[in-house]
């Protein structure tokens, strides 16, 4: 039976509401809430069969929310502003939908709205949500077209399924643009959990309890050891007594030569941290889209683009790289503010004591280890001379305290030193063969210039070696992964499920979200099609069309012959079996005629035939007999097994 | 309908042969996106622009899925009409100025759900059909004669409403349209030799004669329910009036003033013929080059003769 139009109208409103549900997470909550209320109001009017408000009232009512939107976002364009405005306008549009055409316009807007949550989030869950939205929108479309209400979900699912191969083909083949058409101001209100452009006490510590993924890395060939994974992001070389910042001193590093033994080849998918991208210490080669800058740091070529990027790198996992320092640079790396007197005296003591720089560094490290420092994520708050307080009174801290103290100490001892901030370690996903680095892996360490090389010294490793070898969570309870609600350590199966989910997310990220112009190019090359151009796109579309879409079309357009029931099929089979055996049987014969004709067969076969015919007659003409009787199936199988042997030619005279 | 569309559809109709029945296939089915289909393509384009600008892969998915949906809708709409078998049954004769009812039989394979509309090519809308069967399409008759069934249009926007599949059909079926009876108060001439009744007298009120439009004063007992079920029009059954004796009535073409038009004559003759039938008289109908002798109750050949007078077989 056909659906009544009101059901279709409710379906359209429900589809719209469902589609924009994820926007609750992205927009000021009152905007989607107002939208939901508008849809609810429209549904109520439809339910009660009431008149819609006059257009003048609608226009007047629109002013207030739009004004409110302007006040809260300060914009009506761009990502947030545009989406919120579109939402409000669609809500008001719902109040002037009367005819079928109006409802279809509203539904079309719904399809457009389905794209808006994707501007904010493209993870696997939002893809599943998109699928759900598409299904509900298509379902509403079927109902609007007058489809049968009971069969409409099936019809919608079928239409979407049939459309899928073509969609996939277009997704792979349609050329992508390497950059945006026009740039829009993005007012991202969410605090980015990541590295900041300076290091003050606590700035890294606040990241450590967060389990949020920071970036992923995939190594080709050999996997590195966990303790080799020092991901370099930023370098800080200016110290004001409390805060380390990046100075602008050019580094005259001799580039490391590529092709060395033990070189690791990998690709990283990361969002830039203040323009800087993570790279394994120390890079020897940078792939397309990124460049190596001073102090072995890697940046995007289009440095102002803050979008996620996948880039290839090659590194040699080693603790030092060669660099020459001019006298001016040397002075810069020895600069210290007047504060932290005790630390400076300690450093100067070492400078006097050990003339040899290597020995001096070893002595500094040994001294730090003997201070009884404790690794904790909740150290007491330090004020004033933070380095002195840390080294000589509180003695509790984590990587940034250690790094800051050691760099100060080294500079005071006459060794050029600086701080490197980045990540250390990561979680290896064995199923997906990739490393997931989280916020909790954020780390800071020190670099000391010694004998023409910047030498990595990780004071945290000196004091708490287990921090480097194992996960931070095993050392510090605050950074342990906990179950969301229960708040205790998760069981083993949870880890397995979690790893699988991460793997799915990684594959998703690699193949869907990051499928951009560059990746498309590399796929085309791997397929042997060369550059993305008119010719290669046409080749893919034609080839894919023939392989994927054409069979579907043929299947859809093929007119299936009517399904014959078991008794009909069985009867025809029986007649043809008898004919094969040499009996002059015909499909139009009655059972009695068949039996008469089959007297030429052997007695056993005649018996079988008699039984088959008796069943056929009984079931075919019984009271309330139907062709869908389950017994017919068994009967058909018996006929299939009935194979009378071929009669000798002389007996085949028949009648 | 715009001028261009009109021109296109008349061109389509001109090249269609008339067939008594037909099965729709790819040569007869036309497919065009509806305005909703175009609108959705526009939405897909907008989403694509957004995806291009913001480099949102999933928005590409959405955009391409919408485009694919519109393309697949072409095939799905085609399937709504493909394999549809149509023929027109025999239509009952009507009086000019009333609606002729064409019984159209539509068949399609069992188990396929279809939703289509059948109507005249020059009228919007049509009858909605969701299962095989017969529909009666009414068409106003304007003039007496043989009316050929006008071209039909069958269309479907199911299942998505994005693409319209339509086909024009020119079937072979005709309906006989009687002249509209016009009251003629002159007494009809009687034949001198008429009136031998050899046949047995019918029992009064038993012999069914014909159907007329039902009026409330006739009473519910006279309603022809079968005819109502078939046509949806209330008709009353007329019975032979009891007659004591039967006379023969002479209806002549030439009995009217010379300046009277053929149609006016036919209308009056029609009225006279019906009146004579009501009275239960035998009739002799004299038309130029044609003379019919009709026994009482045998009114149909007379009406047909009037309907077909001077009409060449159309097409």
UniProtKB/TrEMBL annotation, chain A:
<feature type="domain" description="Transglutaminase-like">
    <location>
        <begin position="391"/>
        <end position="461"/>
    </location>
</feature>
<keyword id="KW-0472">Membrane</keyword>
<feature type="transmembrane region" description="Helical">
    <location>
        <begin position="56"/>
        <end position="73"/>
    </location>
</feature>
<feature type="transmembrane region" description="Helical">
    <location>
        <begin position="159"/>
        <end position="177"/>
    </location>
</feature>
<keyword id="KW-1133">Transmembrane helix</keyword>
<protein>
    <submittedName>
        <fullName>Transglutaminase</fullName>
    </submittedName>
</protein>
<dbReference type="Pfam" id="PF11992">
    <property type="entry name" value="TgpA_N"/>
</dbReference>
<dbReference type="InterPro" id="IPR021878">
    <property type="entry name" value="TgpA_N"/>
</dbReference>
<feature type="transmembrane region" description="Helical">
    <location>
        <begin position="126"/>
        <end position="147"/>
    </location>
</feature>
<dbReference type="InterPro" id="IPR038765">
    <property type="entry name" value="Papain-like_cys_pep_sf"/>
</dbReference>
<keyword id="KW-0812">Transmembrane</keyword>
<feature type="transmembrane region" description="Helical">
    <location>
        <begin position="103"/>
        <end position="120"/>
    </location>
</feature>
<dbReference type="InterPro" id="IPR052901">
    <property type="entry name" value="Bact_TGase-like"/>
</dbReference>
<feature type="transmembrane region" description="Helical">
    <location>
        <begin position="532"/>
        <end position="558"/>
    </location>
</feature>
<dbReference type="InterPro" id="IPR002931">
    <property type="entry name" value="Transglutaminase-like"/>
</dbReference>
<feature type="transmembrane region" description="Helical">
    <location>
        <begin position="7"/>
        <end position="24"/>
    </location>
</feature>
<dbReference type="Pfam" id="PF01841">
    <property type="entry name" value="Transglut_core"/>
</dbReference>
